[in-house]
Description:
Helix content: 25-40%
Shape: globular
Bound molecules: adenosine-5'-diphosphate, magnesium ion
Radius of gyration: 32 Å
Amino acid sequence: MAEASPPSNENKPKSAPQRALEKLGLVRDIDFALHLPLRYEDETKRVPIASLRDGDVAQVEGVVTDSRVQFRPRRQLVVKIHDSADDLVLRFLNFYPSHQKALAEGARVRVRGEARGGFFGLEMVHPAFKAVDEATPLARALTPVYPTTAQLPQAYLRKVVASGLSRADLSEQLPPGSVPAGMMSLRDALDFLHHPAPDVSIETLEDHSHPAWQRLKFEELLAQQLSQLKAKQERERQRAPAFALQAGGLQEKLLAALPFSLTEAQRRVVEEIARDLARETPMHRLLQGDVGSGKTVVAALAAAVAIQQGWQCALMAPTEILAEQHLRKLVGWLAPLGITVAWLTGSRKGKGRREMLAQVASGEAALVVGTHAVIQDQVEFARLGLAIIDEQHRFGVQQRLALRSKLQQSTNGRGAAEGPLEPHTLMMSATPIPRTLAMTLFADLDISTIDELPPGRTPVVTKLFADDKRDAVVARIRDEVALGRQVYWVCPLIEESETLDLQNATATHQQLCEALPGQMIGLLHGRMPAAEKAAVMSLFTSGQMGVLVSTTVIEVGVDVPNASLMVIEHAERFGLSQLHQLRGRVGRGAVASVCVLLYTPPLSETAKSRLKAMMDTNDGFEIARRDLDIRGPGEFFGARQSGAPLLRFADLALDEPLVHQARASALALLAKHPQAAERHVTRWLGSKTDYLKA
Ligand code: ADP
Ligand code: MG
């Protein structure tokens, strides 16, 4: 315990229990106080043996009248106890000499377990027991059972938690009015949850609906809101180049040159972004919009604003295929306006690469498109004003951290008079964050949402078939291709085995080649060299190739409006948001499109609910909500990786009202009682506050 031990002890070897406690995050007194029971055992009551019924979990007390080791049917300790009226048999299949000693004839024991009808009447197998005398009082509160690890016995954990709880400073730190009316105090709530009175409904404790739990969840959500809002305030103290929108400037020219007009939603988000860019604080905005909602053109319009002012813009995508597609689109839109676009990926080497790097360093390239190669060490920007990151959650943690530090260096010292400038950042995602998550884990992001698809799209029809209907599906492909349309066939990524993965895709490719003679059928997988991938992709994009068999490399962002059929093999192996992303590859033109989900029974319950969600809705927000339900917030959106600590107590699916209350309190606290806010964050997050900012 940090408070108990002086810092000089830190280099001393730690005892095994101490290490185990640290593993559980138990260091400060307050950490122990906040280590809450998973469930409870009731040792507050004692019933007569005569009242036991088969299946009862209960506590009885009696004197041992017989204790012996039996050898048949297997070695076991069999003990008989007697209360004033009846006998009960206790059976221990694993036992130590200490058991035999404690359960010797004449000993008085209190025993708790499940009564089962045995051959000789009721018995308990492996009950908990302890030696008592007639005066030993019953427990006055329910006995807590704590989350633990193998090295920590419950009895020890109960002791250290109880002492942490008694020592911890749990005084009310929040000023009146910042806790919702009628909530229990933190001290009362914790005392209660660690040692609940026996008359409480155990259910409301275990499902966290009890008022004591409400207080804990509120506190936790408040700490989380506060730390996120503080991160946001810090960001607002940083400075960025301000890009005022210019009448008759590049953005206007680009708008005029587009072959379509923006949807209402696109217009709105373009304005939101322009407002951010015009400020002197760095933008930190997430642009979310369902697949096909037209985020790329919004990115281009944002880039145009920065470029107009003589700054550079970088656009990064998680895969080379996706980056290349952006490149093609952006070059098509921006080159006619006289803008030089550079292209940087890992596979680009040698002279071509050196030339690109020189263009980026000199500022000649106003827009740089690529994969994470854009943020590698050798890349120097003349002056980067805006970074756009597509499908940002697909970048790994390392890449995101690298990006952050790259961004900090890459305004190249401009604005040095008032301290360094930070570029603006715009992140894009087709996986909308459900509202509660947006308000909690991502509270320091501003969010723009495109909630409308471009006109003239026909919603994709989704069909579910067991794998034995494969032939019918192949026939459907034949029809589709005969009409001049194009087809994707996606095979699952088999994580454990890239080889199997490939075999699967190769076999399907072979099968389709045989079934559709005379058709050009492509194969695309992760292990192909980038140039080969690009070649296949361009045959498909140009319409020469009718069918593309692929592992999940096509997952994000590929845009071929003429594709009208998407077949997903082993759909049961895909995550829900992945399925939705894949489905979004079709239905991008005016033709009616179909997504066929092929599955191989039997289906697990979660696979069933994923496929059902796909059948029920095309709406990315609804899909995201269901995904959150199915997977829980921990896995959603890679939140676990993002460094944001997961909520231990609050459940975002159930506690939305509390999230709103915590949000309102956090805003008020920061405005009026910043010191109380600081104390609260420290109490709850302790040393973790730093890494929250990453
Ligand atoms: P996503 O949001 O999934 O990244 P894209 O930016 O790839 O979507 O856009 C999907 C397709 O829709 C592209 O072909 C794009 O050019 C087209 N598009 C975008 N906005 C509009 C619009 N307002 N009207 C018509 N087509 C549009
Ligand atoms: Mg996209």
